[in-house]
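During the no-cost extension, the postdoctoral fellow (Dr. R.K.) reprocessed legacy sequence entries with the updated structure-token encoder. One reprocessed record is reproduced below for audit purposes.
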Amino acid sequence: MPMFSWFLFAGSMTILPTVLFLITGVLRETAVKTADNSVSTSVSAALQGIKTIITSPVARVDNLQTQWTALVRSSLASVLEDSQPDESRPDLDEISMLTAITLFLLSASNELVGVTVLQKGCMERFRNALNSSDPWVQARCYQLLLSVFQHSTRPLSTPYIHALAPLMVEKLKAVERSRPRTAAELQAVQEGIKVLENLVGMGEEKNRVQLVALLVPTLISYLLDENTIPSASQASKDLHDFALQNLMRIGPLYPAAFKTVIGAAPELKTRLESAVRANQASSKAKDAARQAQPTVQAAPTIKLKTSFF
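Re-encoded structure tokens follow.
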């Protein structure tokens, strides 16, 4: 590396700790929940600043690795500290803080952020968000988790999958007993299923049946009995439709695993077949009603010249 460039990067290392301290401070003070879950410009700027610094060329300068490692780790530790549940700050926007944590995980190397104490802290923040009573927080947490699970560096993503996927599956299975009542609750479930579907796709072929055995029964548990559909809430009906559509797509994707899972549990097969028949009957009834409607004669597009109106 040219001497000038080294001095330039070394000079950067003298001011970066102060800059990151200020940025994380702005994040801490301005990450406040809003009624519409919007993110303030100051929080957006702070998050962008964190990403810009973590991905800066300084990270690749060998002679500065010790300083850089200490800086990144201490900054992540500060964000973890600031994002701890605190009764004195009930309005803390945990998703903005969780987004900052995710940026560290996605942008820094596993050697920097994979140390046990930081890893445990990050997992705990994700766990808190998954257990939140706010469906919007749950939905955003699932989205952020998906980006971590899909990280190309397996030594980074695998511990998070092992630590958090079981809780995620547990929560998605519990939906059968407590179906969504609002659009926000429905979205949280849909985002969770999206993560679970991606995990099935990411898994090795030898583990496919076990993974499909987590996803398919969960989706089938969301299906409504045809007699209860008319009286169900809109969110519950939408969950039924969402589950059925996904099951129809997953079957052809993993035919052998799907057949094995369904074949091992006759009650699952019966429930799925009943939902498919009810859906086909509903579609036929709608088509018949549409065809039975009288054809309305369209008005002529060109009026006669004798018409004055």
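The longest helix spans residues 3-30. The two ends are 83 Å apart (CA to CA). The remaining legacy entries will be reprocessed before the final report is submitted.
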